[in-house]
Amino acid sequence: MAIGQAVLAPAVLDVAEVRRIEERVEDRERSRSVAHAEQLTDLLALERVYDQAGMALGATAEIALLLRCSEHRAGALLADAQVLERLGALAVMRTGLLTVEQARVVVDVLGCLDDLGLAASVWERLHLRLLADADRGVLLPPARLRELLQRWLLTADPGGAVVRRKAAQRDTTDVQVWRRDDGLLDVALRGLTGPNAQSCLSRISQHADPIGPYDDRTQ
Fold it and tell me: pLDDT tens-digit profile of 25-34?
């Protein structure tokens, strides 16, 4: 052994300590979902009290004051609560079975449906899936959950799925431009169909091709 070198003790993972920490993390995440569901439940109760007093329009402003947030966020939370309660998902969330992120996907995908019976049937199917996943100790990621709900909706109501897609394209398609502090611009295109997106990319690629040997633009 060279002078100045020392023998390092082999690293040993404390499995028991890791497991204790992991359990605390899991418990806190479950508690976060439960607390969020309880907060949404209280917001609905507060709205009902204001509504009974003929002051329904003041509920959102009061919620914003209580949460120290914008009225936009307060209204969004109240809307989420209404959708989750209507589906029966809020009660499930209070048990910790439905996470905050999963609940947001449920609201996004099912909250816009006019057919309440369809929304309820898809939610019940998801509820059964969540129960099965819990028994197996697995969690359905939000992205996978969204794909699953959209596929179930397509199977259950193919005609309605086409109508909703066209409506989403009509309502969300736009082009936004932001000017940076350094003078450059950022451009974003949203709500494009696959063929239209490919057409835009193809045109951009054509204009990005070098014009000559001294064209130093990035591609």
Answer: 999 999 999 9
